Please model this.
Amino acid sequence: MIDNQLIEKLQKENVTLAFNVPMKHHTSFRIGGCADALCEVKDVPSLRAVTALCREYGVPYFILGRGSNLLVSDQGIEGLVITLGGEFCEVSLTEENVIRAGAGCTLAKLCMFAKEMSLSGLEFAWGIPGSVGGAVYMNAGAYNGEIKQVTVAVDYMDKDGQIKRCRADELQFSYRHSRFTDTEDIILSAAFCLTPKEQNAIAEKMNELMERRKLKQPLNHPSAGSVFKRPEGAFAAALIEECGLKGYRCGGAQVSPKHAGFIVNDNGATAEDVLHLIEHIRQVVSEKKHINLCCEVKFVGRK
Ligand SMILES: Cc1cc2nc3c(=O)[nH]c(=O)nc-3n(C[C@H](O)[C@H](O)[C@H](O)COP(=O)(O)OP(=O)(O)OC[C@H]3O[C@@H](n4cnc5c(N)ncnc54)[C@H](O)[C@@H]3O)c2cc1C
Model:
């Protein structure tokens, strides 16, 4: 599928290329077969060139953030998995109270930078794993905060390699959704407008929310966070617990005994184990509670 001519052309770009890469090393679930190739691009021209080459050679590609909301198939991922490194990991203060971060930057780095600049608004995101790109794509949120509340603009590359800018009102943010969820556009960077605040107060809030996470979430086990979206008027974790499924397991995949909204990889779980468990949970909750749970975690790779 990825022939030698394509490999030669890819290697001329500002990228790091590896083949047959186990995706379990690149996902928070620690699950997943091999990607045919993993390509870290370091700048916009190399991203444009790599995606154009994939299209020219008919090779599919997938943009990977930090892999914290993904379940990768045991059969791996066909084609190129692209990650954003180099200049995509930068973060800076661009205007008064406005921070711009590259899509490859971790949310943790962004939150720390905001705190160092004494800017408030991102405290809720402290503790959410993943990248800025993934957070914008998912409209990540926690503890009454959401990325949409602070995002003022997003730069992205469309499928023709054109760079465009979306303002806040064009981003179509809703619960765990943005305009990027429905397009092939690649998020390059995002700008966040924040509010000046005393640094200690920001740090205190971040610590408080991290403590709440540690108390409630099974952070010592590999997972992809909450597996299901919050259904209208209910909480997925409560429904699952009320159905008696806390601790229920399929192979190495288990409904976390600590937080029923999480599935944890307890002992060498496969993607198949997780999919079976998800199906079982959905079936039981549908029968007993008459509510259809929708997955927040994305399945990627060969079916
Ligand atoms: C322990 C734990 C706790 C969690 N807690 C929370 C929480 O409180 N709130 C919450 O919202 N989520 C939470 N999550 C889920 C996850 O961290 C978020 O969904 C996060 O935003 C995913 O970012 P990522 O970079 O890992 O994206 P990935 O999982 O790598 O990708 C997710 C999707 O985003 C797309 N994507 C990533 N980068 C780009 C880009 N540059 N351009 C276009 N598309 C892109 C990918 O193609 C994929 O479709 C948690 C996960 C874990 C493991």
